[in-house]
Amino acid sequence: MALATFAVPAPAAAQQPFTPEIALDVRTPGIVAVTEDGARVAVTLTSRRDRTDVDHQRFGDPTYISPVSTRLMVIDTRTGDPTWVQAEPAAQMRGYAWSPDGGRLAWFMVEDGEYRLRIFDAVTGASRTVPLRTDREIASSSPLVWSPDGARVLLGLRPTGWAEEARAAFHALTDAPVIVQDSRNDFLAWDRVRNLATRQETVLVSVVDGTVREVLSEVTPVGPGFSEDGSYITFSTAMRTKTSYTRRDGTEYELFRLDLAAGGDPVSLRDTGEERMNVVWNDARDAFAYAEEGSVFVRRLAEDEAVDVTEGHRGDVDEGAAGDEAGARADGDNPGSDDEESDSDGIRFAVERWSPSGDQLLLSSQDAWHLLDLDSDGMHTLLELEEDEDQRPRRQVQGWREDGRYLYFSYSAADRWQRGLKRLDTGTGDIETLMLDANLYRSWNVSEDGATLVYAMSDGDHPNEIWVARGDGSSPRRLTETNPRLEGVALTRSELVEYLDVDGNTLYGILYYPANYEPGRAYPMVAEIYEEYFDNGFNENMNLITAQGWFGFRPSVRFEEGFPGEAWLKAVPNAINKIIERGLVDPEKVGVYGQSYGGYATNLLITQTDRFAAAANVSGKVNIISFLGDSPKITTRNYAAAEVGQDRIGATLWEQPHKYIAHSAVMFADRIETPLLMLSGEGDWNVPATNQREMYYALRRLGKEVVWVHYTAGGHGAGRASSEADFVDHWQRMFDWFAEHFGEERARSAAQDGS
What we know:
Number of helices: 13
CATH class of the domain at 491-753: Alpha Beta
Number of strands: 42
Helix content: 10-25%
CATH superfamily of the domain at 491-753: Alpha/Beta hydrolase fold, catalytic domain
Distance between the termini: 41 Å
Radius of gyration: 27 Å
CATH topology of the domain at 491-753: Rossmann fold
C-alpha cells in the first residue's frame, strides 16, 4: 500500500545520477533554537563532507573534540530574510540558546582547540566572542542557560588541571607500556576515564564583560533551570557509584535547589536512590510533578512535602469532556489498557506537561489523556485512545498556547503515511487538524501565543527544508533552500509496503524505486535490514542503491525476547516475496546488506537461507561471545546489549550459553552459501574489526566466497565513517559487489569502455 505524493521528475535526459560525490555535499538543515514569539529561528547546516576528518582512534579521549564543521544562520520568520552567522563551516558548534527577549543567540564554538562562548545580536547582525575572565576551559558537555534578565548565562567549566589529568588517564590505557585492570576498583578503568568527561564546575558568566561567578563545584548538574525571578536554580544529579552491567544500578539520582543570592549548599528536594528520576517542572520553576506507581505527585517548593494529586482519580474519570476527531477516537503516547488494570491498580497516570499558568496538569493514562485542575481537584478526559494499541496513531504534545486554550500535538497514522499537526481545545475537547498529508514533519515549534509554527518538512524523498506557517497552519512558507544542486539529480521515490511475517504479524517496509524506473521491467533489488522502518524521508543509502538501476528496500522485523535471530528469517523473505509477486523484482537478483546491528543481522540471516545473490556486512559483529569484551572503550555496553538491550538474548552467557552460540553467525559459517562482502574500520569503537576478521578467516578456511575490506582511517561504518576518498571507495565496492553477482559486471565494463 502507498499513500505518498510524488513530485513529477524532470526528463531523465536532463538529470544526472546520484553519486557518492554528490552525497558528500547534501546539506541537512536543523532547527536548533526558536525565539518564544517564533519571530526568529537559528538553523544549522551540515553535510557528510563536514565530518570526514574524525580521528576515530581518539574515541574515549575526554580532551578530544571531533572536527565536525557546521554553518549557522538566523532567519527572520516574518520576512524570510536570512542572516549568516557562520557562512563558512566552523569546527564544532553546539549549545544554541536565545535570550529571554529573543534578541541575542548564544552558542559554543571551538576556537584554537577550545570551546568559546559566542553571542549573536539579531538587531545589529554582529557576533562576538565573550572573553571569560578565567583560565579554565568551557566543558564540552556544558549546559547553556540564560538568566531571566538576560544579563548572564549558566555554563560549565573544566576544573583546574583537568585536561592534563584526562589526557594522562587516556594515554595510560592506550600508550602505556604496562596496563593494569583490577576488579577491586568500583569502576572499570575505561569507565573511570569516561567519568572524567562529565566533570565540570558550574558558573554564571556575564555576557557583557565575561565576569565569572562560581555556583557549583562538587556536582555536575543535569537539566539546570532558573526560577522566574532568577533568585535560584534547580537541577538534578546522576552520580555514578560503580560500573553497572544491568543499567538499573550504579547511579544515584537526586533533585536540588540552590539559592543564588544567599549562596551555601544546594538543598535536596527529592532523592530516589538508584531509581531513575523523571520530574516535570512548571514554567515558574517553583513546582514539579512526577509519577510514582501510577499516581502523580506535585511538590511546591514553598511546601515541605509532595502531594498525591491523583489520589481520588485512580478509580475512574469523568468522560464528559472527551473529544472526538470526526467520529474517531484519539490517541496518546502512553499505551496500555485501562480496562485490564482498573480492577486491581486502577488508572495509572503519567505526567505530560504543566499548563502555561501552572494551575493544570496534562496527564496520560493507559488509554486516555486527562486534564487535572490543581485548584479544584477536578479532572476530565480530553482524549480517549483507540483500544487496538498497534493501530494507535503516534502523537506527541508540541506546545500549549500561553492562554491555556490550545494544546498542539503531532500526529502520525500507524498504517499509512498520514502525518501532521493538530490542536486540541482544552475547554471543549474539540480537535482541529492544522496539517495532515503524506509529507514528513519534524522539529515542531509553536510560539507562545500560538500565532506561529516553525518546523522542518520533507515530501518524503527530498532533504528537509525549514518552513513557517500561521498558528492555524495556513500560509506555509519555505524559509530555506539548502540543496539547489539536487534539482538536476535523479532521486528515488518511496512507497510504503504492508506484509505479514511468518507469525502473521502485520509489518511495514519502505520500497525505493530505481531513479529512472520504467513500468513493466523486473529490476534487481538490494534490501537494507536492521529493525523497524516506517517513515520515509531523504535517504542517502537508498538513493545510492537506486541510482545503480536497482530497487532499494528496507523491511521491518518483529523480535521475540530470547529468540531474536529468528526475526529476520520470519519477515525479510516474506517482505521480498511481496515485491516479487508484483512483478517489480527479478527473484534471482536480490541482495541484502546492513550496517552495525543490520550487518550482524545480514550475517546471521545468510546462515539460515541461501536465497540472496550476494550480501554485505558493514561494521556488524559475527560472534556475540567475543563481542562481549572486545570493545573496551564502551566498557559494559556490549554485555548490557546482549543481556537486556538490543541483542535481546535476555540472559547472561553463563545462564544460557547455547543462545549466545545460536546467535553468533561465525558458529554456522559452514552453512553460508551467499557471497559475502565485509567492510570494517580500524578505529571502530563499537564493533572492532577483530570481530569481522573471525568470519573472514572462517569462510576462507571453509572455501567460501568472501571479501574483507578494511579502512585504516575508518570508524563505525567503515568507509562511510572515514575520509572523503574512503567514502567513495566504500560505495563503489558495494556497487561492484552486487553488480558482479547480479550478472551486471560485464555489461557495466562494456558500457564504461564504450563498447
